[in-house]
Amino acid sequence: MSKLSGCNRQIPRELLGRARELRKQQTSAEAILWECLRDRRFFKAKFRRQHNIGQYIVDFYCHAGLLAIEVDGAVHDAQQVKDADRDEWMQSHGLTVLRFRNDEVFDELEKVLGAIALYLPSP
Is the pTM of this model over 0.85? Predict the structure, then answer.
C-alpha cells in the first residue's frame, strides 16, 4: 500500500488550477503518450494526466502501479536538482517515477511503452 494513503487529500486550489492549465497546454510529446494511455487503452490501466500528488503535479499517474511518469523537454535540463528532490519525495511515499525525454516519446514510443508496462499490474 502506498504511503500516500494517509496523506491529507486536500489539494490547494492554486495547485488544482495549475493542473487544469497544464492539461490544456500539454506538449506534443505528452499528447502522443496520452493517446496511448488514456481510456484504459494500455494494459487496461487507469492513468490520469497532470495529476496532483502532494505538492507536486506529475504528467501521468497510475494508482494501480503506484507509477508517476514525467515527460521532460529542454526546460527540464536546467531543473535536474529540483527533479531529483521531487523524485526522492515521491519514492519515499512508495511511488516509482519514470522519466522520458520528449525525443524518446517521438522516436522510440514502443520502447517507452515497454518500460511503462514493466511497472503495471497484470490485467
Answer: no
The domain total for the chain is 1
Least confident of 17-21, 44-48, 81-85: 17-21
In the chain, what is the greatest distance between 2 CA atoms, to the nearest angstrom?
Answer: 39
Query: Does any domain span residue 77?
Result: yes
In a domain, 123, yes or no: no
Q: Which domain holds residue 80?
A: 8-117
- Tallying the residues shown for the chain, one arrives at 123
Element (H, E) at 106: helix 102-107
Q: Give the number of C-alpha atoms closer than 13 A to the C-alpha of residue 39, restricted to the C-beta side.
A: 3
The answer to whether 48 touches 104, Cβ cutoff 8 Å, is no
Per the domain annotation, does 108 fall within a domain? yes
